[in-house]
Amino acid sequence: MVSSEFEEAYRELEEGKLESALEKFLKIAEKEQSVEVWVNIGNIYRRMNLLAKAIESYKRALEIDQKNPVVLFNLGSAYYQMGKFFEALKLLEKAEEQGLTDPRVKIVKALCKIKLNLPDPMEGLDEDQKRIVKDLMKNG
């Protein structure tokens, strides 16, 4: 699915040119529906703090691949940012069930558990991950 249009849009995203990258990814999405395009659109919206649009984009990606762990993680992270901790936790657990081993999953899961006052929120975290969670909780 890697086209020169996609590469150009992604490069602009990496350079922080969010509006331009978004415009390019939306044009690609008009021609071709793919998980990668919708995830990048969602990521741009999240970086712009347009969380409802980010969630909508991740849901479009899930329509294409319901079990994609990267989509589940990103959707869960967006819900976390919105303060929807229960929904976030369920999606993050599904991402792990689908094989995502990214350490950020455990960190965001722990943050959700803390916000939900669930027991043992740090269970399964290594010392570095525990430190990150504590730092994130201190800083809001």
From TrEMBL:
Keywords: Repeat, TPR repeat. TPR repeats lie at residues 35-68, 69-102. The keyword Ubl conjugation does not apply. GO terms for biological process: regulation of DNA-templated transcription. It comes from the Bacteria. The keyword Ribonucleoprotein does not apply. Gene3D superfamilies: Tetratricopeptide repeat domain (1.25.40.10). InterPro entries: Ctr9, TPR-like_helical_dom_sf, TPR_rpt. This is Uncharacterized protein.
